[in-house]
Amino acid sequence: MTPGGLVGTATSASPGCQTLKKYLAKQDPPAIIGQLQLQLDCHVAYCNELRPHLGLKGPTPREVFEALTKASPRWEGIEVEGRRVRHDKIDPSS
Fold it and tell me: What does the pLDDT read at residue 15?
């Protein structure tokens, strides 16, 4: 157990982190930060859009995400097209 009482979570890296470390270890070391960003972008694109979802054995993580129901207004018939809509931010200090 870790000092916080959690089993293994504070000391072990996530599977995604291990996958990224292995991927980067196989790449040529980047000479500039832009090359590193390109390597990271390629890995993220592979993980999200090409490889099957590990838990669902079939669709990609992107396909699973796109299939989820997205948030919408709670009331039917609310029409905001052509109207001014406020996007106030609540100040947490007040």
Answer: 67
Q: Would 63 be classed as within a structural domain?
A: yes
Residue 9 lies in a domain: no
CA 68 to centroid of chain Cα atoms: 15
Residues of the domain holding 45: 15-67
pTM, entire model: 0.55
Distance spanning both ends of the chain, measured CA to CA? 40
Task: Decide if 19 is inside a domain.
Answer: yes
Residues 6 or more apart whose Cβ sits within 8 Å of residue 4: 10
For residues 71 and 75, give the distance between their C-alpha atoms in angstroms, rounded to a whole number: 12
Check whether 8 has a pLDDT greater than 60: no
- DSSP 3-state assignment of 26? helix
